[in-house]
RNA sequence: UGGGGUGUCGUCUAACGGUAGGACAACGGACUUUGAAUCCGUUUAUUGAGGUUCGAAUCCUUGCACCCCAGCCA
């Protein structure tokens, strides 16, 4: 899990450019999201790459919103994206907007028109699509392709001035209708849209397309190395074509393409994520089941773990799906170091220590004849907050004669190799005493509702003076002191698929949105948990305290064992 | 169908003509106040076939597989 950029072909290219002086040593990148949704784990790779390259070579990286489509974009997304990038630990040199370049782009388009390199097409979308031809089939030139620059200029200005209806005309680049690359068959540069733009309002009725806006925005800003995902490889020639026909204020930027980050069991399509919200399957973009950065954050993923994961993934051109275990491994590694240990019992079972002392000198068993809720003398144990990190200090954990233990930590009929509690067996209650089960109380249905035990008073702290060993240490919560908490467990990390659609990965289609909520007992210290705090429940996993809601915890990741069990259950 | 991109342990990822390395997973052992964590160790890979070379994952030829491109989305 060491950070490395050894195999980064983009870094190699930057080194080569620096060696030849192409950009006079300048390195500038940008992260260019469209503000039409929330950032997800997949974006983290791009962010890491964009900011990483700049940082590695002493350059700058800007955040630029590719806000060229008024119909889908909103300030809500702009704000969330800014926030997420900061949370991930990156600082854009500037926050820029493609919409700030609308005028510059317009002027450049006029220049192209004047030079006979762009034209206004009056045909409808379908006609243009048919004329574009197909793979291996030639395209047909538009009858409007050879209008004079003067006519085009006039039409273009009237488009801008709102003299035509939405969709009535487009501006297209005059490239090559016979090109093998479909993107070169006279791509659309401007369309007429009367949508309300989140920044420019109703100032414009024509909007540049991605192809016309992106490379030119890069050029206007002085970007040197422009990274995007693999599906834009076919746009590379067009990116260059536009820039080659324009007067640029800086040296011409270069486009580099790398593979998207895909994860098993994880949907990253914005369309589908939005549908999950609209269908009410999740509560919003920050639902802890969502693969959004906000969802992960709420779930307790440390930003540093996501960064380390991305560094391990690297930047490459191979389409691949990373396993969720890999991401989780980075999360566990991080959390194991920093998360404080707390005791929480997910499925509580009462353990009564019959020989526990009471204030009046009787045993608890005797006192309980009068008051079944009696717990006897309270005692406090000092427990390390994080055995991995002694600087985290210790805390006092209360203990008395009635405590909660994990249901699965007791077996009436112990299966082979069962190391935990059963009648006649002795175990350690962590930090407290050695106890031996003596019997059980059952309800009418035969279910064990109470386990009785005796403790060894000489084993305070958990060790017997005679040095005898026990095979198991168990976590516990004092019944009289413990707090009620709601713990939310998810079957997979993220919501997986929208019902009715499959990805071909059998796990993706399984029990997609199950959410188990359990009523847990937790130690009093957790009453102080702040939203976002992540703690480890011993032998169970990591849990994040939810925002706004007291005593609600989301499972961040399980321990390794827990994950293996989930997978087995899924299979 | 034309063009483009990509193929390395089970899954990811390194190597840039010179020992196929790392992570995750798996398996074994040690240790342990949670069967966790920690520590130590082990297994498994160059898409097929040819060629060049003292030497090929890397260069050449040729198959095969997967992905992307015919939005007025990005």
What would your notes on this structure say?
- This protein has 571 residues and is α/β, with parallel strands linked by helices.
- It folds into 3 domains: 250 residues, HUPs (Rossmann fold, 3-Layer(aba) Sandwich), CATH 3.40.50.620; 148 residues, Beta Barrel (Ribosomal Protein L25, Chain P); 129 residues, Ribosomal Protein L25, Chain P.
- Helices cover 27% and strands 23% of the residues.
- The protein contains 14 helices and 27 strands.
- It has a 7-stranded mixed beta sheet. Strands 21-18-19-20-14-17-22 form a 7-stranded mixed beta sheet, with no helix packed on it.
- Helix 2 packs across helix 11 and helix 7 crosses helix 8.
- It is elongated and about 105 Å long.
- The chain starts with 8 loop residues before the first helix and ends with a helix.
- The structure holds one RNA strand of 74 nucleotides.
Q: What is the structure about, briefly put?
A:
With 571 residues, the chain is of the alpha/beta class. 27% of the residues lie in helices and 23% in strands.
Low-confidence stretches: 1-5, 504-512
CATH topology of the largest domain: Rossmann fold
Radius of gyration: 32 Å
Structural class: alpha/beta
Strand residue percentage: 15-25%
Identify the overall geometry. Answer: elongated
Number of structural domains: 3
CATH class of the largest domain reads Alpha Beta
Give the oligomer, counting copies of the same chain as homo and different chains as hetero: single chain
**Helix content class:** 25-40%
Reported CATH architecture of the largest domain: 3-Layer(aba) Sandwich
Considering the protein shown, what is the CATH homologous superfamily of the largest domain? HUPs
Query: What's the number of extended β-strand segments?
Result: 27
Total helices: the number is 14
Average pLDDT: 92
Major beta sheet summary: 7 strands, mixed
Distance between the termini: 28 Å
Strands in their spatial order, largest beta sheet: 12-25-26-27-23-24-13
């Amino acid at each position: 899990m060491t950070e490395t950029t050894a195999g980064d072909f983009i870094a190699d290219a930057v080194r080569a450019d620096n060696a030849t002086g192409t950009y006079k040593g300048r390195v500038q990148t940008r992260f260019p999201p469209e503000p039409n949704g929330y950032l997800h784990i997949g974006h983290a790779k791009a962010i890491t790459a964009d900011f990483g390259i700049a940082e590695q070579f002493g350059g700058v990286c800007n955040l630029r919103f590719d806000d060229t489509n008024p119909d889908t974009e909103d300030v809500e997304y702009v704000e969330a994206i800014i926030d997420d990038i900061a949370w991930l630990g990156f600082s854009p040199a500037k926050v820029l907007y493609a919409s700030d370049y609308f005028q510059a782009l317009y002027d450049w388009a006029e220049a192209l028109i004047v030079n006979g390199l762009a034209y206004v097409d009056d045909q409808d979308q379908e006609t243009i699509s048919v004329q574009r031809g197909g793979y291996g089939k030639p395209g047909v030139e538009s009858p409007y392709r050879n209008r004079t620059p003067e006519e085009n200029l006039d039409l273009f200005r009237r488009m801008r001035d709102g003299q035509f209806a939405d969709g009535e005309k487009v501006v297209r680049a005059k490239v090559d209708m016979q090109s093998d690359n479909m993107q070169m068959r006279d791509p659309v540069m401007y369309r007429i849209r009367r949508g309300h733009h989140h920044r420019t309002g109703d100032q414009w009725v024509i909007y540049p397309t991605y192809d016309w806006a992106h490379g030119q925005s890069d050029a206007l800003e002085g970007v040197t190395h422009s990274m995007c995902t693999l599906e834009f490889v076919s746009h590379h020639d067009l990116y260059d074509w536009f820039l080659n026909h324009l007067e640029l204020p800086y040296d011409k930027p270069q486009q580099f393409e790398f593979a998207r980050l895909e994860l098993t069991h994880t949907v990253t399509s914005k369309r589908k994520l939005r549908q999950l919200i609209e269908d009410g399957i999740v509560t919003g973009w920050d639902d802890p089941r969502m693969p959004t950065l906000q969802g992960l954050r709420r779930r307790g993923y440390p930003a540093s773990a996501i960064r380390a994961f991305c560094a391990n993934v690297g930047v490459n051109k191979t389409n691949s799906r990373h396993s969720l275990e890999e991401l989780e491994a980075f999360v566990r590694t991080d959390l194991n170091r920093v998360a404080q240990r707390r005791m929480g019992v997910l499925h509580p079972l009462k353990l009564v220590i019959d020989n526990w002392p009471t204030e009046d000198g009787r045993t608890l068993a005797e006192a309980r004849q009068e008051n079944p809720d009696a717990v006897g003398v309270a005692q406090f144990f000092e427990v390390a907050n994080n055995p991995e990190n002694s600087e985290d200090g210790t805390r006092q954990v209360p203990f008395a004669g009635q405590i909660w233990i994990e249901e699965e930590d007791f077996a009436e009929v112990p299966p082979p190799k069962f190391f935990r509690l059963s009648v006649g067996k002795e175990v350690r209650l962590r930090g407290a005493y050695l106890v031996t089960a003596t019997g059980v109380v059952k309800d009418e249905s035969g279910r064990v509702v109470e386990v009785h035990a005796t403790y060894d008073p000489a084993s305070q702290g958990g060790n017997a003076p005679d040095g005898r060993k026990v095979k198991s240490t168990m976590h516990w919560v004092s019944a009289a002191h413990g707090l009620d908490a709601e713990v939310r467990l998810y079957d997979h990390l993220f919501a997986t698929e929208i019902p009715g659609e499959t990805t071909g990965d059998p796990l993706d289609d399984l029990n997609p949105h199950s959410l188990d909520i359990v009523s847990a007992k937790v130690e009093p210290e957790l009453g102080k948990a702040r939203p976002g705090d992540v703690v480890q429940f011993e032998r169970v996993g990591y849990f994040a305290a939810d925002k706004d809601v007291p005593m609600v915890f989301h499972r961040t990741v399980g321990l390794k064992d827990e994950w293996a069990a989930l997978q087995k259950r899924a299979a």
